[in-house]
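Reviewer comment 2.1 asked that we show a complete input and output for one of the modelled complexes. We chose the flavin-adenine dinucleotide case, as it is the one discussed in the main text.
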Amino acid sequence: MSNQFEVIIIGGGIAGLQAAIQLGRYKHKIGVIDSNDGRSTICRCYHNILGWPDGVSGQTLRELGKQHAERYGVSFIQNEVIKVEKAEIRFTLYCRGGDTFTAKRLLLATGVKDNIPAIKNIYKCLGLTIYVCPDCDGYEVVDKHVIVIGSSMPGANMALTLSYFTKNITLINHDWKQLDSETMEKLKQKGITYIQDDVEEVLLREDSEDFKGVRLKTGEIIDGDRGFLGFGGNEVRSELATQLGIERTENKHIIVDPRTKRTNVEHVWAAGDIAVHSEQTTIAMGDGMQAAIWIHKSLLDEK
Ligand SMILES: Cc1cc2nc3c(=O)[nH]c(=O)nc-3n(C[C@H](O)[C@H](O)[C@H](O)COP(=O)(O)OP(=O)(O)OC[C@H]3O[C@@H](n4cnc5c(N)ncnc54)[C@H](O)[C@@H]3O)c2cc1C
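Response of the prediction step:
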C-alpha cells in the first residue's frame, strides 16, 4: 500500500467512517488510521438511532462502516498517530512503530475516551445495562432502580439528572471525597439513597450481561435494575490538534466552523465527539458527512 493519500482520516469511529464512505464515493484516495480504542469500540448497544429500534452495537456499526467504505477503495490502517506535521502542501503523520503517511487534507475524528473505573464486569455491560449518558440512555432507566456509581460531584449531578426518569436511585460515591451539605440536601429532597464506599464488583444475572447490582468493598450487596456511571474526567483526544496550532475550547474540544467543520488551520477538519460539542452517534455521522462534503469541495478547487 502506498503511504500517500489525498485525505487521511485519523480515527475510524462513527464520524471517521461516515466521512470515509462519502469521500470514497467522491473517488478520492482515502486512508483511515484507527487505534480501535474509542467509545464506539466499547459501547455494546446504542438505543436512539434511526433504523435500529432494537439497538445496535458500536462494533456492528464499525464493521458495517468499514466494509461499506472498502467498497470504494478506502484503505484502513490499524495504528495510532502520535505526531503530525504540516509542510508546504502535505501533512506528514507519524504512527507508533515508525510508519509514516502523508496527505493533502486531514480529518481529525479521534473522539473522547471515557473515564471508566477498573471494576470487575463493568465493560461487559456498557450500553446494555450500564450507561454513561442520560441523553442517550435516560429512557432505559425509567421507573427502574438505578445504581449510580460515581465520584463526588459528577456522581451527584448524574443522580440528580436521572431523577427526571426514575424516583428509585441509589448513589454510591466511590471516591471518598465528601459532598457539600447543599448537595446532600438536594439528594435528600429527591429521595436519593446515598452510600459512601468503594464498589468491588458489578453483579450479573447468571450467564448474561444483565446487571443485577453491585458488591461493595465492605462485602455488602446492593441490588438494582440498571447501572449508570458518573465519574467525569473524560479525555478529549485533541492532542494532535495542538501540534498543528488548532484552536480548542477550555475543555479541549476542537473549534470548527459550524457549516463546514473546518478548523482554523487550512486543510484540517474535525468531526464527531472531538469537535464542539456533539457527543452522540448520529451527530458524529452528520459531522463526518458534512466535513467530507467540504473536503471534496476543497480538493476540487485545487484541481
Ligand atoms: C457506554 C457508552 C454508551 C453510549 N451510548 C450512546 C447512545 O446510546 N447513543 C448515542 O448516540 N451515543 C452514545 N454514546 C456516544 C457515542 O459512542 C459517541 O458519540 C460516538 O462514538 C462518537 O463517534 P466518534 O467517531 O466521534 O468517536 P469514536 O467512535 O470514539 O471513534 C474515535 C476513533 O478514533 C480512534 N483514535 C483516537 N485517537 C487516535 C489516534 N491518535 N490515532 C488513531 N486513531 C485514534 C479511536 O480508537 C476510535 O476508534 C455512548 C458512548 C459510550 C462510551
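The mean pLDDT is 96. We note this here for comparison with the apo prediction described in Section 3.2.
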